[in-house]
Amino acid sequence: MPKTIKKGICSRCYIRNRSIFSELSYEQLDKLQNFSPTVTSYQTKEVIYYQNDNSSNAFTLRSGMVKLTKSLPDGRTQIIRILKQGDLFGFDGFANQNYNQTATALTECELCHLPITGLQKLRQSEAEIDTAIMNRWLNNLNAAENMMLTLGAQKASERLANFLVHWGEEENDEWKKMPLSRKDIGDLLGLTIETVSRFLSQWKKMGLIQEYRGNVLIKNKTELCEVINPKGTCE
Amino acid sequence: MPKTIKKGICSRCYIRNRSIFSELSYEQLDKLQNFSPTVTSYQTKEVIYYQNDNSSNAFTLRSGMVKLTKSLPDGRTQIIRILKQGDLFGFDGFANQNYNQTATALTECELCHLPITGLQKLRQSEAEIDTAIMNRWLNNLNAAENMMLTLGAQKASERLANFLVHWGEEENDEWKKMPLSRKDIGDLLGLTIETVSRFLSQWKKMGLIQEYRGNVLIKNKTELCEVINPKGTCE
DNA sequence: CGGGCGCTTGATTATGTTCAACTTCAGTGG
DNA sequence: CCACTGAAGTTGAACATAATCAAGCGCCCG
Protein backbone atom coordinates (compact mmCIF):
# COMPACT_ATOMS: atom_id res chain seq x y z
CA MET A 1 0.00 0.00 0.00
CA PRO A 2 2.35 2.76 -1.15
CA LYS A 3 1.41 6.21 0.00
CA THR A 4 3.46 9.05 -1.42
CA ILE A 5 3.91 12.01 0.84
CA LYS A 6 4.85 15.55 0.04
CA LYS A 7 4.54 19.02 1.49
CA GLY A 8 1.81 21.32 0.24
CA ILE A 9 1.98 25.04 -0.39
CA CYS A 10 -1.41 26.46 0.50
CA SER A 11 -1.16 29.69 -1.45
CA ARG A 12 -0.55 27.73 -4.64
CA CYS A 13 -2.91 24.90 -3.98
CA TYR A 14 -5.09 24.26 -7.03
CA ILE A 15 -8.16 23.40 -5.00
CA ARG A 16 -7.80 26.26 -2.58
CA ASN A 17 -10.92 27.97 -3.86
CA ARG A 18 -13.00 24.88 -3.17
CA SER A 19 -11.61 24.32 0.31
CA ILE A 20 -12.36 25.81 3.69
CA PHE A 21 -9.62 28.33 2.95
CA SER A 22 -11.33 29.77 -0.10
CA GLU A 23 -12.17 33.10 1.50
CA LEU A 24 -8.70 33.82 2.82
CA SER A 25 -6.36 36.51 1.54
CA TYR A 26 -2.86 35.61 0.39
CA GLU A 27 -1.51 37.02 3.63
CA GLN A 28 -3.75 34.76 5.63
CA LEU A 29 -2.80 31.82 3.46
CA ASP A 30 0.84 32.40 4.27
CA LYS A 31 0.01 31.95 7.93
CA LEU A 32 -1.29 28.52 7.11
CA GLN A 33 2.15 27.52 6.09
CA ASN A 34 3.12 27.12 9.78
CA PHE A 35 0.80 24.31 9.51
CA SER A 36 3.16 22.75 6.99
CA PRO A 37 0.42 20.65 5.48
CA THR A 38 1.29 17.21 4.21
CA VAL A 39 -0.32 15.71 1.14
CA THR A 40 -0.75 11.98 0.72
CA SER A 41 -1.98 9.76 -2.11
CA TYR A 42 -4.18 6.71 -1.94
CA GLN A 43 -5.07 4.02 -4.41
CA THR A 44 -8.56 2.82 -5.23
CA LYS A 45 -10.04 0.79 -2.35
CA GLU A 46 -7.31 1.79 0.06
CA VAL A 47 -8.55 2.67 3.55
CA ILE A 48 -7.62 6.15 4.76
CA TYR A 49 -8.75 5.58 8.34
CA TYR A 50 -10.93 3.19 10.27
CA GLN A 51 -13.86 3.97 12.51
CA ASN A 52 -12.61 4.41 16.09
CA ASP A 53 -9.10 5.38 15.04
CA ASN A 54 -7.90 8.44 16.87
CA SER A 55 -8.98 11.55 15.02
CA SER A 56 -5.98 13.83 15.20
CA ASN A 57 -6.28 14.99 11.59
CA ALA A 58 -9.05 16.28 9.43
CA PHE A 59 -8.60 16.14 5.67
CA THR A 60 -9.35 18.09 2.56
CA LEU A 61 -9.88 15.97 -0.51
CA ARG A 62 -7.71 17.42 -3.28
CA SER A 63 -8.62 14.98 -6.03
CA GLY A 64 -10.57 11.76 -6.49
CA MET A 65 -13.48 10.48 -4.47
CA VAL A 66 -13.78 8.93 -1.02
CA LYS A 67 -16.60 7.13 0.77
CA LEU A 68 -17.33 7.29 4.49
CA THR A 69 -19.02 4.15 5.84
CA LYS A 70 -20.44 2.74 9.03
CA SER A 71 -21.04 -0.96 9.57
CA LEU A 72 -23.00 -3.26 11.84
CA PRO A 73 -21.16 -6.07 13.64
CA ASP A 74 -22.33 -8.56 11.01
CA GLY A 75 -20.91 -6.55 8.14
CA ARG A 76 -23.99 -4.80 6.80
CA THR A 77 -22.74 -1.43 5.69
CA GLN A 78 -24.14 2.02 5.11
CA ILE A 79 -22.34 4.67 3.10
CA ILE A 80 -22.69 7.88 5.07
CA ARG A 81 -21.22 10.35 2.66
CA ILE A 82 -19.37 10.51 -0.62
CA LEU A 83 -16.62 13.07 -0.74
CA LYS A 84 -15.58 15.04 -3.77
CA GLN A 85 -12.95 17.63 -4.54
CA GLY A 86 -12.61 20.26 -1.84
CA ASP A 87 -14.66 18.38 0.76
CA LEU A 88 -13.62 18.42 4.41
CA PHE A 89 -13.83 15.19 6.41
CA GLY A 90 -12.50 13.35 9.42
CA PHE A 91 -13.24 16.24 11.76
CA ASP A 92 -14.67 14.18 14.62
CA GLY A 93 -11.66 15.12 16.72
CA PHE A 94 -13.10 18.62 17.15
CA ALA A 95 -15.52 17.06 19.63
CA ASN A 96 -12.76 14.88 21.10
CA GLN A 97 -14.23 11.85 19.41
CA ASN A 98 -12.46 9.16 17.47
CA TYR A 99 -13.38 8.83 13.82
CA ASN A 100 -17.04 7.91 13.56
CA GLN A 101 -16.74 6.34 10.14
CA THR A 102 -14.31 4.43 7.98
CA ALA A 103 -12.90 6.38 5.01
CA THR A 104 -12.07 4.47 1.84
CA ALA A 105 -10.74 5.75 -1.47
CA LEU A 106 -13.20 5.14 -4.31
CA THR A 107 -10.62 6.23 -6.87
CA GLU A 108 -7.00 7.18 -6.77
CA CYS A 109 -6.95 10.26 -4.69
CA GLU A 110 -4.87 12.87 -3.01
CA LEU A 111 -5.59 14.51 0.28
CA CYS A 112 -4.28 17.23 2.52
CA HIS A 113 -3.81 16.59 6.24
CA LEU A 114 -5.10 19.24 8.62
CA PRO A 115 -4.17 18.73 12.29
CA ILE A 116 -7.27 19.28 14.40
CA THR A 117 -5.50 21.29 17.09
CA GLY A 118 -4.07 23.66 14.51
CA LEU A 119 -7.41 24.03 12.75
CA GLN A 120 -9.07 24.72 16.06
CA LYS A 121 -6.70 27.65 16.65
CA LEU A 122 -7.25 28.95 13.14
CA ARG A 123 -10.98 28.76 13.66
CA GLN A 124 -10.62 31.09 16.60
CA SER A 125 -8.29 33.56 14.93
CA GLU A 126 -9.71 33.69 11.40
CA ALA A 127 -13.44 34.28 11.19
CA GLU A 128 -13.55 33.19 7.54
CA ILE A 129 -12.28 29.74 8.45
CA ASP A 130 -14.72 29.44 11.32
CA THR A 131 -17.58 30.31 9.00
CA ALA A 132 -16.38 27.93 6.31
CA ILE A 133 -16.08 25.01 8.71
CA MET A 134 -19.36 25.77 10.42
CA ASN A 135 -21.16 25.92 7.09
CA ARG A 136 -19.76 22.57 6.14
CA TRP A 137 -20.85 21.00 9.41
CA LEU A 138 -24.35 22.35 9.07
CA ASN A 139 -24.55 21.34 5.42
CA ASN A 140 -23.37 17.85 6.33
CA LEU A 141 -26.02 17.69 9.01
CA ASN A 142 -28.70 18.81 6.60
CA ALA A 143 -27.56 16.30 4.00
CA ALA A 144 -27.60 13.49 6.56
CA GLU A 145 -31.12 14.46 7.59
CA ASN A 146 -32.29 14.49 3.99
CA MET A 147 -30.81 11.05 3.63
CA MET A 148 -32.74 9.93 6.70
CA LEU A 149 -35.92 11.00 4.91
CA THR A 150 -34.88 9.12 1.79
CA LEU A 151 -33.97 5.95 3.67
CA GLY A 152 -36.94 6.03 5.99
CA ALA A 153 -39.74 7.10 3.71
CA GLN A 154 -38.94 6.41 0.05
CA LYS A 155 -38.99 3.14 -1.80
CA ALA A 156 -36.28 1.54 -3.84
CA SER A 157 -37.05 3.11 -7.21
CA GLU A 158 -37.58 6.53 -5.67
CA ARG A 159 -34.31 6.42 -3.79
CA LEU A 160 -32.37 5.32 -6.82
CA ALA A 161 -33.93 7.85 -9.19
CA ASN A 162 -33.41 10.59 -6.63
CA PHE A 163 -29.79 9.59 -6.27
CA LEU A 164 -29.18 9.60 -10.02
CA VAL A 165 -30.87 12.93 -10.60
CA HIS A 166 -28.84 14.68 -7.94
CA TRP A 167 -25.53 12.98 -8.55
CA GLY A 168 -22.96 15.49 -9.76
CA GLU A 169 -25.52 18.24 -10.26
CA GLU A 170 -22.87 20.82 -9.52
CA GLU A 171 -20.76 19.65 -12.45
CA ASN A 172 -21.32 20.93 -15.98
CA ASP A 173 -20.50 17.84 -17.96
CA GLU A 174 -23.43 15.84 -19.25
CA TRP A 175 -21.65 12.59 -18.53
CA LYS A 176 -21.00 12.29 -14.79
CA LYS A 177 -18.17 10.27 -13.29
CA MET A 178 -19.62 7.61 -11.02
CA PRO A 179 -16.96 5.35 -9.54
CA LEU A 180 -19.52 3.44 -7.49
CA SER A 181 -20.12 -0.28 -7.86
CA ARG A 182 -23.64 -1.71 -7.60
CA LYS A 183 -22.67 -2.73 -4.09
CA ASP A 184 -21.71 0.85 -3.23
CA ILE A 185 -24.96 2.25 -4.59
CA GLY A 186 -26.81 -0.39 -2.59
CA ASP A 187 -24.88 0.47 0.56
CA LEU A 188 -25.68 4.12 0.03
CA LEU A 189 -29.41 3.63 -0.53
CA GLY A 190 -30.08 0.68 1.75
CA LEU A 191 -30.71 -1.74 -1.13
CA THR A 192 -29.21 -4.93 -2.47
CA ILE A 193 -26.99 -5.22 -5.52
CA GLU A 194 -29.78 -7.00 -7.39
CA THR A 195 -32.41 -4.36 -6.73
CA VAL A 196 -30.08 -1.62 -7.93
CA SER A 197 -29.17 -3.59 -11.00
CA ARG A 198 -32.77 -4.31 -11.93
CA PHE A 199 -33.91 -0.70 -11.88
CA LEU A 200 -30.86 0.53 -13.72
CA SER A 201 -31.36 -2.10 -16.42
CA GLN A 202 -34.98 -1.17 -16.73
CA TRP A 203 -34.26 2.54 -17.06
CA LYS A 204 -31.56 1.85 -19.62
CA LYS A 205 -34.03 -0.13 -21.71
CA MET A 206 -36.52 2.73 -21.36
CA GLY A 207 -33.85 5.16 -22.55
CA LEU A 208 -33.86 7.25 -19.38
CA ILE A 209 -30.18 6.76 -18.67
CA GLN A 210 -26.98 5.56 -20.25
CA GLU A 211 -23.88 4.12 -18.69
CA TYR A 212 -20.35 3.71 -19.95
CA ARG A 213 -17.37 2.63 -17.92
CA GLY A 214 -18.08 4.30 -14.63
CA ASN A 215 -19.89 7.27 -16.17
CA VAL A 216 -23.61 7.96 -16.33
CA LEU A 217 -25.76 10.20 -18.45
CA ILE A 218 -29.31 11.21 -17.63
CA LYS A 219 -31.12 11.13 -20.97
CA ASN A 220 -34.60 11.94 -19.70
CA LYS A 221 -34.55 13.77 -16.44
CA THR A 222 -38.25 14.57 -16.55
CA GLU A 223 -39.31 10.97 -16.71
CA LEU A 224 -36.77 9.95 -14.08
CA CYS A 225 -38.24 12.59 -11.80
CA GLU A 226 -41.69 11.14 -12.42
CA VAL A 227 -40.41 8.03 -10.65
CA ILE A 228 -39.59 10.11 -7.59
CA ASN A 229 -42.66 12.26 -7.51
CA PRO A 230 -45.43 11.20 -9.91
CA LYS A 231 -47.41 14.41 -9.66
CA GLY A 232 -45.10 17.34 -9.22
CA THR A 233 -42.17 18.73 -11.11
CA CYS A 234 -38.66 17.63 -10.46
CA GLU A 235 -37.62 19.64 -7.42
CA MET B 1 -53.26 28.42 20.30
CA PRO B 2 -52.34 30.36 23.43
CA LYS B 3 -48.67 30.87 23.91
CA THR B 4 -47.64 32.48 27.17
CA ILE B 5 -44.56 34.61 27.03
CA LYS B 6 -42.27 35.76 29.78
CA LYS B 7 -38.74 36.98 30.28
CA GLY B 8 -36.08 34.55 31.45
CA ILE B 9 -33.25 35.14 33.88
CA CYS B 10 -30.34 33.03 32.72
CA SER B 11 -28.43 32.94 35.98
CA ARG B 12 -31.43 31.44 37.73
CA CYS B 13 -32.59 29.16 34.95
CA TYR B 14 -33.27 25.69 36.24
CA ILE B 15 -32.00 23.94 33.15
CA ARG B 16 -28.91 26.10 32.81
CA ASN B 17 -26.60 23.18 33.62
CA ARG B 18 -28.06 21.12 30.78
CA SER B 19 -27.90 23.93 28.24
CA ILE B 20 -25.15 25.32 26.06
CA PHE B 21 -24.46 27.78 28.87
CA SER B 22 -23.61 25.10 31.41
CA GLU B 23 -19.90 25.92 31.51
CA LEU B 24 -20.30 29.64 32.05
CA SER B 25 -19.46 31.50 35.26
CA TYR B 26 -22.09 33.67 36.92
CA GLU B 27 -20.33 36.73 35.54
CA GLN B 28 -20.60 35.40 32.04
CA LEU B 29 -24.21 34.48 32.61
CA ASP B 30 -24.98 38.04 33.53
CA LYS B 31 -23.72 39.13 30.13
CA LEU B 32 -26.33 36.91 28.56
CA GLN B 33 -28.98 39.04 30.06
CA ASN B 34 -28.44 41.65 27.31
CA PHE B 35 -29.91 38.98 25.26
CA SER B 36 -33.11 39.35 27.31
CA PRO B 37 -34.23 35.84 26.50
CA THR B 38 -37.93 35.19 26.05
CA VAL B 39 -39.58 31.98 27.15
CA THR B 40 -42.68 30.61 25.44
CA SER B 41 -45.00 27.70 26.14
CA TYR B 42 -46.56 25.29 23.70
CA GLN B 43 -49.30 22.73 23.97
CA THR B 44 -49.13 19.15 22.80
CA LYS B 45 -49.20 18.93 18.98
CA GLU B 46 -48.65 22.65 18.54
CA VAL B 47 -46.17 23.55 15.80
CA ILE B 48 -43.23 25.67 16.91
CA TYR B 49 -41.99 26.41 13.42
CA TYR B 50 -42.38 25.04 9.93
CA GLN B 51 -39.71 23.89 7.55
CA ASN B 52 -38.62 26.82 5.37
CA ASP B 53 -39.66 29.46 7.91
CA ASN B 54 -36.96 32.04 8.42
CA SER B 55 -34.55 30.84 11.08
CA SER B 56 -33.83 33.92 13.13
CA ASN B 57 -34.01 32.10 16.48
CA ALA B 58 -32.52 28.97 17.86
CA PHE B 59 -34.15 27.41 20.91
CA THR B 60 -33.28 25.62 24.10
CA LEU B 61 -35.91 23.19 25.27
CA ARG B 62 -36.59 23.90 28.94
CA SER B 63 -39.22 21.24 29.56
CA GLY B 64 -41.25 18.72 27.61
CA MET B 65 -40.38 17.00 24.35
CA VAL B 66 -40.33 18.17 20.75
CA LYS B 67 -40.01 16.34 17.43
CA LEU B 68 -38.27 17.62 14.33
CA THR B 69 -39.70 16.24 11.09
CA LYS B 70 -39.18 16.35 7.35
CA SER B 71 -41.82 15.34 4.85
CA LEU B 72 -42.12 14.35 1.22
CA PRO B 73 -44.63 16.22 -0.99
CA ASP B 74 -47.14 13.38 -0.59
CA GLY B 75 -47.05 13.55 3.20
CA ARG B 76 -44.78 10.65 4.08
CA THR B 77 -42.85 11.87 7.08
CA GLN B 78 -39.57 11.14 8.79
CA ILE B 79 -38.82 12.18 12.36
CA ILE B 80 -35.30 13.56 12.31
CA ARG B 81 -34.70 14.09 15.98
CA ILE B 82 -36.51 14.02 19.29
CA LEU B 83 -35.58 16.82 21.65
CA LYS B 84 -35.43 16.59 25.40
CA GLN B 85 -34.66 18.94 28.23
CA GLY B 86 -31.64 21.15 27.53
CA ASP B 87 -31.44 20.34 23.82
CA LEU B 88 -30.56 23.04 21.33
CA PHE B 89 -32.46 23.20 18.04
CA GLY B 90 -33.51 25.45 15.21
CA PHE B 91 -29.97 26.64 14.54
CA ASP B 92 -30.08 26.43 10.75
CA GLY B 93 -29.82 30.22 10.64
CA PHE B 94 -26.14 29.96 11.53
CA ALA B 95 -25.57 28.87 7.95
CA ASN B 96 -28.04 31.46 6.64
CA GLN B 97 -30.54 28.74 5.95
CA ASN B 98 -34.21 28.65 6.72
CA TYR B 99 -35.37 25.97 9.12
CA ASN B 100 -34.69 22.58 7.59
CA GLN B 101 -37.34 20.77 9.61
CA THR B 102 -40.72 21.32 11.18
CA ALA B 103 -40.72 21.42 14.99
CA THR B 104 -43.79 20.11 16.83
CA ALA B 105 -44.43 19.81 20.55
CA LEU B 106 -44.90 16.19 21.64
CA THR B 107 -45.98 17.29 25.11
CA GLU B 108 -46.69 20.59 26.75
CA CYS B 109 -43.38 22.33 26.68
CA GLU B 110 -41.50 25.47 27.41
CA LEU B 111 -38.66 26.86 25.39
CA CYS B 112 -36.16 29.67 25.45
CA HIS B 113 -35.59 31.81 22.36
CA LEU B 114 -32.00 32.48 21.37
CA PRO B 115 -31.53 35.00 18.55
CA ILE B 116 -29.01 33.59 16.08
CA THR B 117 -27.15 36.86 15.58
CA GLY B 118 -26.66 37.24 19.31
CA LEU B 119 -25.55 33.65 19.72
CA GLN B 120 -23.11 34.08 16.89
CA LYS B 121 -21.46 36.98 18.71
CA LEU B 122 -21.37 35.01 21.94
CA ARG B 123 -19.78 32.13 20.13
CA GLN B 124 -16.94 34.42 19.12
CA SER B 125 -16.46 36.05 22.51
CA GLU B 126 -16.99 33.10 24.86
CA ALA B 127 -14.97 30.00 24.02
CA GLU B 128 -17.12 27.82 26.30
CA ILE B 129 -20.22 28.62 24.28
CA ASP B 130 -18.43 27.98 21.03
CA THR B 131 -17.31 24.59 22.30
CA ALA B 132 -20.75 23.73 23.65
CA ILE B 133 -22.48 24.58 20.38
CA MET B 134 -19.85 22.85 18.27
CA ASN B 135 -20.14 19.69 20.35
CA ARG B 136 -23.87 19.68 19.90
CA TRP B 137 -23.57 20.09 16.14
CA LEU B 138 -21.08 17.27 15.88
CA ASN B 139 -23.13 15.05 18.17
CA ASN B 140 -26.23 15.76 16.11
CA LEU B 141 -24.30 14.86 12.97
CA ASN B 142 -23.08 11.65 14.53
CA ALA B 143 -26.56 10.74 15.71
CA ALA B 144 -28.01 11.41 12.26
CA GLU B 145 -25.35 9.20 10.70
CA ASN B 146 -26.08 6.40 13.15
CA MET B 147 -29.71 6.71 12.21
CA MET B 148 -28.76 6.42 8.54
CA LEU B 149 -27.15 3.09 9.38
CA THR B 150 -30.24 1.99 11.26
CA LEU B 151 -32.63 3.02 8.50
CA GLY B 152 -30.50 1.73 5.67
CA ALA B 153 -29.21 -1.55 7.04
CA GLN B 154 -31.40 -2.86 9.85
CA LYS B 155 -34.74 -4.55 9.64
CA ALA B 156 -37.96 -3.66 11.39
CA SER B 157 -37.51 -5.66 14.59
CA GLU B 158 -33.88 -4.61 14.92
CA ARG B 159 -34.70 -0.94 14.50
CA LEU B 160 -37.50 -1.08 17.02
CA ALA B 161 -35.56 -3.04 19.63
CA ASN B 162 -32.60 -0.73 19.19
CA PHE B 163 -34.86 2.27 19.64
CA LEU B 164 -36.41 0.89 22.83
CA VAL B 165 -33.12 -0.11 24.39
CA HIS B 166 -31.57 3.30 23.88
CA TRP B 167 -34.63 5.39 24.66
CA GLY B 168 -34.05 7.46 27.77
CA GLU B 169 -30.83 5.66 28.65
CA GLU B 170 -29.55 8.80 30.31
CA GLU B 171 -32.46 8.82 32.76
CA ASN B 172 -32.37 6.81 35.99
CA ASP B 173 -36.01 5.85 36.29
CA GLU B 174 -36.90 2.33 35.26
CA TRP B 175 -40.13 3.50 33.66
CA LYS B 176 -39.33 5.86 30.79
CA LYS B 177 -41.67 8.56 29.58
CA MET B 178 -42.49 7.93 25.95
CA PRO B 179 -44.96 10.45 24.54
CA LEU B 180 -44.75 8.92 21.07
CA SER B 181 -47.74 7.44 19.27
CA ARG B 182 -47.34 4.32 17.11
CA LYS B 183 -47.38 6.70 14.16
CA ASP B 184 -44.51 8.69 15.64
CA ILE B 185 -42.43 5.59 16.28
CA GLY B 186 -43.15 4.50 12.73
CA ASP B 187 -42.14 7.88 11.34
CA LEU B 188 -38.94 7.71 13.33
CA LEU B 189 -37.97 4.21 12.21
CA GLY B 190 -39.36 4.17 8.69
CA LEU B 191 -42.11 1.68 9.52
CA THR B 192 -45.90 1.59 9.48
CA ILE B 193 -48.14 1.83 12.52
CA GLU B 194 -49.11 -1.81 12.12
CA THR B 195 -45.57 -3.13 12.00
CA VAL B 196 -44.66 -1.20 15.15
CA SER B 197 -47.79 -2.42 16.91
CA ARG B 198 -47.18 -6.05 15.99
CA PHE B 199 -43.66 -6.23 17.40
CA LEU B 200 -44.58 -4.34 20.54
CA SER B 201 -47.52 -6.68 21.16
CA GLN B 202 -45.30 -9.67 20.62
CA TRP B 203 -42.64 -8.43 23.01
CA LYS B 204 -45.27 -7.63 25.61
CA LYS B 205 -46.59 -11.17 25.39
CA MET B 206 -43.03 -12.47 25.71
CA GLY B 207 -42.56 -10.32 28.80
CA LEU B 208 -39.70 -8.27 27.37
CA ILE B 209 -41.42 -4.93 27.84
CA GLN B 210 -44.34 -3.31 29.61
CA GLU B 211 -46.30 -0.22 28.72
CA TYR B 212 -48.59 2.00 30.72
CA ARG B 213 -50.04 5.31 29.61
CA GLY B 214 -47.17 6.71 27.63
CA ASN B 215 -44.47 5.04 29.71
CA VAL B 216 -42.37 2.00 28.90
CA LEU B 217 -40.34 -0.39 30.96
CA ILE B 218 -37.71 -2.75 29.60
CA LYS B 219 -38.18 -5.97 31.56
CA ASN B 220 -35.58 -8.03 29.77
CA LYS B 221 -32.91 -5.96 28.13
CA THR B 222 -30.71 -8.93 27.35
CA GLU B 223 -33.32 -10.67 25.27
CA LEU B 224 -34.33 -7.44 23.57
CA CYS B 225 -30.71 -6.95 22.60
CA GLU B 226 -30.68 -10.45 21.14
CA VAL B 227 -33.19 -9.16 18.63
CA ILE B 228 -30.74 -6.48 17.54
CA ASN B 229 -27.63 -8.55 17.47
CA PRO B 230 -28.19 -12.30 17.87
CA LYS B 231 -24.58 -13.15 18.59
CA GLY B 232 -22.93 -10.37 20.50
CA THR B 233 -23.65 -8.46 23.64
CA CYS B 234 -26.03 -5.58 23.79
CA GLU B 235 -24.98 -2.28 22.20
C1' DC C 1 -6.41 -17.25 -23.28
C1' DG C 2 -8.07 -18.24 -18.75
C1' DG C 3 -9.73 -16.77 -14.28
C1' DG C 4 -12.29 -13.97 -11.40
C1' DC C 5 -15.02 -10.31 -10.19
C1' DG C 6 -18.86 -7.55 -11.00
C1' DC C 7 -23.13 -7.42 -13.16
C1' DT C 8 -27.51 -9.22 -14.93
C1' DT C 9 -31.57 -11.91 -14.90
C1' DG C 10 -34.98 -15.27 -13.31
C1' DA C 11 -37.39 -17.90 -9.67
C1' DT C 12 -38.57 -18.17 -5.02
C1' DT C 13 -39.15 -16.50 -0.49
C1' DA C 14 -39.54 -13.31 3.28
C1' DT C 15 -40.56 -9.11 5.12
C1' DG C 16 -43.33 -5.48 5.75
C1' DT C 17 -47.32 -2.83 3.73
C1' DT C 18 -52.00 -2.29 2.81
C1' DC C 19 -56.69 -3.00 3.65
C1' DA C 20 -60.21 -3.93 6.78
C1' DA C 21 -62.61 -5.01 10.93
C1' DC C 22 -62.56 -4.79 15.59
C1' DT C 23 -61.03 -3.30 20.44
C1' DT C 24 -59.44 -0.18 23.79
C1' DC C 25 -58.92 4.09 25.76
C1' DA C 26 -59.46 9.03 26.81
C1' DG C 27 -62.27 12.71 26.84
C1' DT C 28 -67.13 14.82 26.76
C1' DG C 29 -71.55 15.63 28.06
C1' DG C 30 -75.80 14.13 29.94
C1' DC D 1 -71.20 8.05 37.24
C1' DC D 2 -72.10 6.16 33.00
C1' DA D 3 -73.00 6.31 28.06
C1' DC D 4 -71.26 8.05 23.92
C1' DT D 5 -67.79 9.46 20.61
C1' DG D 6 -63.64 9.63 18.12
C1' DA D 7 -58.90 8.68 18.09
C1' DA D 8 -55.38 5.35 18.79
C1' DG D 9 -54.11 0.75 18.85
C1' DT D 10 -54.59 -4.23 17.68
C1' DT D 11 -55.08 -8.12 14.83
C1' DG D 12 -55.88 -10.91 10.69
C1' DA D 13 -55.72 -11.70 5.67
C1' DA D 14 -54.23 -10.46 1.22
C1' DC D 15 -50.82 -8.25 -1.33
C1' DA D 16 -46.49 -5.88 -2.85
C1' DT D 17 -41.95 -4.98 -2.58
C1' DA D 18 -37.50 -6.10 -2.14
C1' DA D 19 -34.30 -9.77 -0.40
C1' DT D 20 -32.44 -14.09 -1.18
C1' DC D 21 -30.93 -17.85 -3.86
C1' DA D 22 -29.12 -19.41 -8.08
C1' DA D 23 -27.28 -19.50 -12.67
C1' DG D 24 -25.06 -17.46 -16.32
C1' DC D 25 -22.81 -13.56 -18.82
C1' DG D 26 -19.22 -10.20 -19.91
C1' DC D 27 -15.39 -7.69 -19.15
C1' DC D 28 -10.97 -6.57 -17.26
C1' DC D 29 -6.50 -8.15 -15.85
C1' DG D 30 -2.91 -10.93 -15.63
Strand order of the largest sheet of chain A: 1-2-9-4-7
Spatial gap, N to C terminus of chain A = 43 Å
CATH level 1 class label of the largest domain in chain A: Mainly Beta
Instruction: Work out the oligomeric state of the chains in this entry.
Output: homodimer
Write the H/E string of chain A, N to C.
Answer: EHEEEEEEEEHHHEHHEEH
What's the main sheet of chain A like? 5 strands, antiparallel
Give the second-level CATH assignment, the architecture of the largest domain in chain A: Sandwich
Helical residues, percent of chain A: 25-40%
Structural summary, described in words:
The structure is a homodimer of 235-residue chains. Chain A is α+β, with helices and mostly antiparallel strands and 235 residues long. The first copy, chain A, folds into two domains: 3-150, Jelly Rolls; 154-228, Orthogonal Bundle (Arc Repressor Mutant, subunit A). Helices cover 36% and strands 23% of the residues of chain A. Chain A contains seven helices and twelve strands. In chain A, a hairpin with a 5-residue loop joins strand 5 and strand 6 (77-83). In chain A, helix 2 crosses helix 3. Chain A starts with a strand and ends in a 7-residue tail after the last helix. In chain A, 38% of the residues are buried. Chain A binds chain B through residues 70-74, 76-78, 80, 91-92, 94-95, 97, 100-101, 124, 127, 130, 134-135, 137-142, 144-149, 151-154, 187-190, 229, 231-232, and chain B through 70-74, 76-78, 80, 91-92, 94-95, 97, 100-101, 124, 127, 130, 134-135, 137-142, 144-149, 151-154, 187-190, 229, 231-232. Chain B binds a DNA duplex (30 and 30 nucleotides) through residues 155-156, 181-183, 191-195, 197-198, 200-201, 213.
